[in-house]
């Protein structure tokens, strides 16, 4: 990882070797073969947006390694923080990230942050300025718990789960299928997943309705490594021959910050769900979803509870992937 | 306790022998004679409604046993969860209890839950569907931290406190007296108390104004064990000859979900409080209350602070009862 | 410290010797020379008002000593508490501090409290009745995490920081300069700082616009020890020859509870900030601020980030000062 302090903001921060080492460590931790400990160490968790899985997995990972967590919730425990430099701070933010980061760095051994998103403009939010400011000013490792653009811990756990299920991933086909939901999420999970899967040598296909294209940065990152992924018009085409079908609902970047347009576009996408028929078009395809999942809307009960589903395994691996990251970043 | 994973939803889940074992263990833990540990174990606490005593007792119990807690508050940390099966999830709940329970079970060693109450219809809330769904889907023990119907940890602590004060409880008389409060609570504490006290062989008398009858399930549970409790019209009659007077304000199940009717009924109940005169009608009666208590409205300062009061002891025993439950459920 | 249980409500609770011992211990803990442990001990944190630094420093201090914390937030985890005695509790508060304090004392080893402030009348809030009620009724040590009047943990850390930077503080000059901010804080930090600094033998000068006089209790406490501090009309006069310049924005006690008057008075105070020019008037003066700080409004970036700034060191010392207090109060 990068020079001291190491951070984990996106998987691109890791070399291939570092990524492989992390996955190996996560596997050993899952089998309880690792003895490293974080006794009396603390991590500060800053959640500017709520969380169930990420927060519980993270706190339990730290506890099982012998350490502690301090949970700070944006709504109640802290205030708006200024990220721009050199400004006269006469606005709403009474404190600068520079100061909050320096101070918290003297209390804890790492900072894990789910940064805020303003929600007005994708051109602005896609810059991930809040998490970048924390990484710039913190004197301890910063772990990204899902920014507008990236969700590296989810992708680590997804990669780990696919390797457990399929072995060597080179040449295996991953179909990412957009799903309809009244409460879509950020594309961060899919961005990081494509980053991880192409790097592992997978053949990635993507299917979504018009207007749900991913951020252009993804193609740039993947392309720079000589990899590519392919968009398909029909989900049937994407699933054809796939070993993994990964369902996810994300919002339209084109309509970002415009709820009326977004709802109108979404009204035309009913039927974008994964059922047994679609799954059967794969090559013995396993089913994945990062949750939360709207049952019988994004995916049918039969798929979610069926023998091909990896959704619980995939969520459970969040614990082990997080432990590996904590040990690597705190102990080096 | 029931087959793996064991849960504690209501005291009726326990055999007489299991209940006795739990109380013995709680007593040993109070005297620090037990050495069992829950090192590096975690419990997830899910509070859909606030708490002071339950939460602090629970977290401290876990800490003193060497373990950790993850506290999730309904208001900020998670969303509405669907409990019904087979439904198309197009409503407010973005996630199913089935999935949340499976996932959290892979992160923590037990789940302690104070479930939500819709508050509209007693016929619906009395079914305790939320906690039942968690118990059905969790793969680790589920501990009920007070549902609409039951509050087993409070009753365990109440039973422990009465045994410490009175020794063998068989044939001893317990008077449960309804009290007036602008903020009454659920009848769960009283339901579980009657369950516990009749099982211990106590003679239980209950006094309350008209319209404050308990849920019929209580009579059914107690009757099935060949026990009974008796309702009295006057609180003086209930207290006569009692060794314990237990005060508690609970809402009218008849007016449930109708605040106007409830307030109107409550307006006729001023004077339902426990003072020295009432307590003196007992047989050297000790005074109990599960708190929070409105002083000089539900019970006088003289009673609460007097030599017969067990209220602090009773609250303190929550710690030891909780430890016993944690050890039994997690270690078996 | 005072008889069992010891509390820390204000520095005046400590003898000179006890204060010195605390600072020595904090210094040893900073160098990791102390081995005392608080294994399996818990502290309850009750925040009736939000916090970032205090809360994280406190939780991490306890974790690094091997112990745990239970964090209770006023907004969500508990309700209004009655502090007056003998009253019929028919109002909003469903519980009395007397009962909450007695019960929590049986679960944790100390209670650290940031009490509520009603905000209507300084004559009332200055009495610090809430924290006094907790100290009266708790059966474990109570630590004041900033009341209306005092912030002892901040002052301990400030004193420690000045000693590290300047050595023996006798005769050294401390200039406290009021700063303009749209969100001023309570004068508690400055009250406790003057208490600590005069006791250490420093020559304290204070500069603020008209109407920002401190509470009269400060002069009384300092005077009783034969010390004094001096108010200056101009900040240049206060800073002249100072070894430390301490910036802080506090609200006008004269306008307390009257936001319109307060805003109108504050509108005339633009320009009350610390910049390089002002700092240069000192005698090689170091710069301090308890944070949060509004950059380029209260103090310039050049001052805050410059070589004379102690602001991060000062915040970092909160950790060590808190550890020393925890060890002294819990272990004795």
Descriptive account of the structure:
The structure is a homotrimer of 332-residue chains. Chain A is of the alpha/beta class and 332 residues long. Chain A has two domains: 11-150 and 318-331, Aspartate/ornithine carbamoyltransferase (Rossmann fold), CATH 3.40.50; 154-315, Rossmann fold, CATH 3.40.50.1370. Helices cover 39% and strands 14% of the residues of chain A. Chain A is built from 13 helices and eleven strands. Chain A has helices at residues 16-30, 53-64, 97-105, 122-125, 129-137, 152-166, 188-199, 216-224, 235-239, 259-266, 276-280, 301-305, 311-331; strands at 42-47, 68-73, 81-82, 95-96, 110-114, 142-144, 173-178, 203-207, 229-232, 244-248, 286-289. In chain A, the strands form three sheets. Chain A has a five-stranded parallel beta sheet with strand order 9-8-7-10-11. In chain A, strands 2-1-5-6 form a four-stranded parallel beta sheet, sandwiched between helices. In chain A, strands 3-4 form a two-stranded parallel ribbon. In chain A, α2 (53-64) links the parallel β1 and β2 (68-73). In chain A, α3 (97-105) crosses α5. Chain A is globular, with a radius of gyration of 20 Å. The first copy, chain A, starts with 15 loop residues before the first helix and ends with a helix. The mean pLDDT of chain A is 92. The B-C interface holds B 50-53, 55-57, 59-60, 63-66, 68, 71, 73, 75-76, 181-183, 291-297, 301, 304, 311-312, 315-316, 318-319 and C 40-42, 44, 67-68, 70-72, 76-79, 82, 85-90, 94-96, 98-100, 102-104, 106-108.
């Amino acid at each position: 990882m990068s020079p001291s302090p190491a951070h984990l903001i996106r998987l691109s921060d890791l070399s291939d070797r570092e990524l492989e080492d992390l996955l190996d460590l996560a596997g050993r931790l899952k089998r309880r073969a690792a003895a490293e400990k974080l006794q009396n160490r603390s991590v500060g968790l800053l959640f500017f947006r709520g969380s169930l899985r990420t927060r519980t997995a993270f706190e339990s990972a730290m506890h099982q390694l012998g350490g502690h967590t301090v949970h700070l919730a944006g709504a109640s425990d802290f205030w708006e923080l200024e990220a721009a430099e050199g400004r006269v701070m006469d606005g709403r933010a009474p404190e600068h990230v520079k100061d909050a980061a320096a101070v918290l760095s003297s209390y804890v051994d790492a900072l894990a942050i789910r940064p805020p998103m303003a929600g007005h403009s994708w051109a602005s939010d896609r810059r991930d300025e809040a998490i970048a400011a924390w990484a710039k000013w913190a004197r301890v490792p910063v772990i990204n718990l899902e920014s507008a653009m990236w969700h590296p811990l989810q992708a680590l756990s997804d990669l780990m789960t696919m390797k457990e299920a399929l072995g060597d991933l080179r040449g295996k086909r991953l179909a990412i299928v957009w799903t309809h939901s009244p409460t879509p999420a950020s594309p961060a999970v899919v961005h990081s997943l494509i980053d991880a899967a192409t790097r592992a040598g997978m053949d990635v296909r993507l299917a979504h309705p018009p207007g749900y294209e991913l951020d252009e940065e993804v193609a740039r990152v993947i392309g720079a490594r000589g990899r590519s992924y392919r968009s398909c018009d029909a989900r049937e085409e994407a699933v054809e021959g796939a070993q993994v079908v990964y369902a996810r609902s994300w919002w339209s970047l084109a309509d970002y910050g415009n709820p009326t347009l977004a709802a109108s576009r979404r009204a035309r996408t009913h039927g974008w769900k994964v059922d047994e028929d679609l799954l059967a078009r794969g090559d013995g395809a396993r089913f994945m979803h990062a949750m939360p999942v709207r049952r019988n809307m994004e995916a049918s009960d039969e798929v979610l509870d069926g023998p091909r589903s990896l959704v619980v395994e995939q969520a459970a691996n969040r614990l082990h992937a997080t432990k590996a990251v904590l040990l690597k970043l705190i102990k080096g």
